[in-house]
Write a structure and sequence with these properties.
Shape: elongated
Number of strands: 0
Keywords: Endoplasmic reticulum, Membrane, Transmembrane, Transmembrane helix
Oligomer: single chain
Largest sheet: none
Subcellular location: Endoplasmic reticulum membrane
GO biological process, one term: response to bacterium
Structural class: mainly alpha
Protein name: Reticulon-like protein
Membrane topology: Multi-pass membrane protein
Number of helices: 11
Radius of gyration: 39 Å
Helix content: over 70%
Length: 263
């Protein structure tokens, strides 16, 4: 009995040792397999750049992040400027061209045109209304035309906000805090004055209208080619401005307003 008990204890110890060895062997095998997997995958391999990061790295004109259609508001005016509906865009541009030809080339006056249109319209309606009594037909239905209040108030409110913003910007420029903005506004106003001496307001408005119907759609079509060229031009302008700032603007004495702020 004692020998049998010793033999069973020996078997139990031997099985326990075997289990421990199997466990150690399994742990070594799993660690070695994980090491081999990490060795197969290079640690310094660069990850593929996502399309969003590549797209964000592209320089866009005026630093825009939205498509051209959303920059113009994304509504019907944007559809007209970008020729989403060619019939409507062509009709709008054709109407503007007809108005410019009528007033500029034919030298027709706005007040005379309005009066002549009213005379022609009233004469036709008056004759048509009286002619129906002789031919036993119904009188023409003349609709009541009235201006809605809400759109007029919205336009007036938007115009008021823009005028106040412009006055605020002009006041800030006149205070002498930003020399760069002052010079850019002066240059823009000088260019407008030169254009105003070359052509009248109607021609200038028509040129701007035509540019709005041509430049955005061409830019949207060739933006991938235009943006790199504009980026190079902007960098060159910044370099020249830095040279001009170092040689000229930095030598201009500072006004008392800046000295008070620093004090």
């Amino acid at each position: 009995m004692a020998e049998h008990a010793e033999h069973s204890e020996y078997n139990e110890e031997e099985s326990l040792i075997e289990k421990i060895e199997d466990k150690i062997h399994f742990d070594r095998f799993s660690s070695s397999s994980s090491d081999s997997d990490t060795e197969k995958k290079p640690a310094s391999a660069p990850e593929a750049a996502s399309p969003s990061s590549v797209k964000a790295a592209i320089w866009r004109l005026f630093g825009r992040e939205k498509p051209v259609h959303q920059v113009f508001g994304g509504g019907k005016p944007a559809d007209v400027f970008l020729w989403r509906n060619k019939k409507i865009s062509a009709s709008v541009l054709g109407g503007a061209t007809a108005i410019w030809v009528l007033f500029e080339l034919l030298e027709y006056h706005l007040l005379g045109l309005v009066c002549h249109l009213l005379i022609f319209t009233l004469a036709i309606l008056f004759l048509w209304s009286n002619a129906t009594t002789f031919i036993n037909k119904k009188r023409p239905h003349i609709p009541e035309v009235h201006l809605p209040e809400e759109p007029i108030l919205e336009i007036a409110s938007a115009l008021r906000i823009e005028i106040n913003h412009t006055l605020r910007v002009l006041r800030e420029i006149a205070s002498g805090r930003d020399l760069t903005k002052f010079l850019s506004v002066i240059a823009g106003l000088w260019v407008l004055s030169v254009l105003g001496n070359c052509c009248n307001f109607l021609t200038l408005f028509y040129i701007s209208f035509v540019l709005l119907h041509t430049v955005p759609v061409l830019y949207e079509k060739y933006e991938d080619k235009v943006d790199p060229l504009v980026e190079k031009a902007v960098k060159e302008i910044k370099k020249q401005y830095a040279v001009f700032d170092a040689k000229v603007l930095s030598k201009i004495p500072k006004g008392p307003l800046r000295d008070k702020k620093k004090a």
